[in-house]
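Pair request: fold both.
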Amino acid sequence: MEIVLSKILSQIRRQEDKLSSQMMPPAEEAYQMTLFLNEMLCAIKAQVLQNGFTDEQQEIDFFKNIKPQIMGKLIYYNKVFRIETTCPINNARIHQSYYENQLKVLQSEYMESVCNVDFYRYYRSGRTDRDHIYFRLGQINYHDGLKSGVFEIDLSFSTYYDNKIARIVANEMLYTYLLTKINPQESPDMVLANVDTNKDISWTNSQNALIELIYALYASASVSHGNIGIRQLALIFQVLFRTPLNDIHHAFHRMKTRSGSRTAFLDQLKTALEEYMDKDL
């Protein structure tokens, strides 16, 4: 059995882009992504149960790196759906207070149940010496005093600790989401005006070139292992370069139908880098 993380993340990003381009409300977008990810996870589960794993390393890789990314996104979008469907009526001050309270709840949960857990430190430090215990089926040690949630998981498709990573992934994405709600990215000019950055740093190429670069980083999962949305990634570049971008989705769709090279700026970067390398030869 072979399940490739890059292909899975690519499928998820395509669905996210598809829904985002339809400009639907955040709650509906989150709901549709929840359905999509749940279906994907069920299909992969059936594949795992039918075919199993070829060796120990493949099993560890699946439960440490692959399943948590899907499950993490699923938990994240379900939480976004719940947050958005209980959000008060459209009032700027009430909205900000609501999202700030949600962020406090998230931070409190993190302090109480995540950051002080030994496994969290193990995972964050990049250790692998206990992977054969944490990420293989049938290795749960109940003497560790695990939370009662361990009795609710499907032990044929979970090692318990893969769920813990999924929640770490989900909470990191939710943290970013809530921050952008508190500082709405629909008004990037307001964010840019309040950021104390070096005014000498600016983007001196075209907006389309910057959008092309942003989408390339997003498509390659080069930032936060792909666990950041295209809107959040675009906002980072807007803040960094103090350059407001207009509708990046429409700009991207126009790039897809360009005559000639659809990656003109990336082609230009490649040529410029190669010429610079040749100078040192």
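--- second member of the pair ---
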Amino acid sequence: MLSATRRGARLARLLAVSELRSRGVSRELTERAELVVAELAANAVLHGRMPGRCFRLTLVIDPSAGRLRVEVSDARGDLRPTETAPDPLSTGGRGLTLVTALADHWDCVPHPPSGKTVRADLLGPVA
């Protein structure tokens, strides 16, 4: 569990990279995962935050399938992510566009009792 703050989002990214490197995940996959974790954690902090509630980062490595799954769960199940065309003059709103470009698949599922989990699958050489 990580605090739903900018610091918590940064820590999620750093912890993910450290864990993936320690497990021998390929550099290319680690770099993609770093960006996906950063975007999903930032979204959890910005859009999924509820007072007194944290967010959760889960990494699932499946070497036999050549897949890394990144999961970020937050407390706001009522706010589901949607990818929309960003305003070209806006300085934000491109996170899910970036996740779509980097991940091979992403989706959002309920996280009981009232939250959601955004999952992103990244395919590639795990080790």
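Observation on the second member. The first strand starts at residue 56 and ends at 62.
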